[in-house]
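We emphasize that the prediction below concerns an isolated chain of 242 residues; any contacts that depend on oligomerization or on bound cofactors are therefore not represented. The input was used exactly as deposited, without trimming of termini.
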Amino acid sequence: MAIQVLIVEDLSYDAELMALRLKDEGIDLNYQRVQGETAYLEALTNHPDLILCDWHLPQFSGQRALSLLREQDLEIPFIIVSGGIGEEAAIDALRQGANDYVLKDRPARLGEAVRRVLDDQRLRKDHEQAQEKLRLAERAFQNTAEGITVTDVDGHIVSVNPAFETITGYSAVEAMGKNPRVLKSGHHDPAFYRNMWSTLIKTGHWRGEIWNRRKNGDVYPEWLTIKTNWARQPTMWVSSAT
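Result of the prediction step, given as a token string:
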């Protein structure tokens, strides 16, 4: 899929050379060239995948373009492509949020710079998506009415949610490090547990009704689901009192 590139450049010839250079290096792209602030701001509304920007323009500047990008709070990779930027100005631009800079008389670096910043952008987005999934999972973990217990590979409890505390009477601090059999009621014979673990080993999960005991000694029935993949991964116990 072609990436959408916004080129901020007053010379159409230079913009075309940039695009051709990238295409020659196997980067599929469509590009739009702008050279003024109004056109630049309008182009930003299309959320391009990448910005290539000259630093010195007759009525605009790369510094202003970079500043506007940050004001819009847009996470779009920004590469300076200029023939007249000095090292000190380039370093200052990187401090302000530019991702890289390429000198026009050294165009061989352009493809490498583009690939690097796009890869960095993808990794950052993947990380943000993973973090968001973790936040959603944590919210569900904390707010569900079902009691959830997570054990490590040795069967020790490493995490419980508030519903577990409500159902069992054990606080999270009290449950940590214990084995879930602390809830064992004594209402099931050894054959029941052998069948449970045999099914869990064969299929990676077990589901059924079980009688457990609260901290205060009350025995109660619950619907229990146990999930594990036996690959040295944590095991999750999800239960709801019936």
